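Exercise: predict the fold of this chain.
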Amino acid sequence: MDKISLMPTLVNISLLVTGKQQRNVFPIYLQKRIVSFISK
């Protein structure tokens, strides 16, 4: 799959995982996940 088309899925998963656990950490966590994913 293309990395760009995977983005919405990553965002949704991250929202589900972090939204339930640590709302404050979510934006930073999501940013790091997306950046590290794109730069691979």
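Check your answer against the key: Residues 3-38 form one domain.
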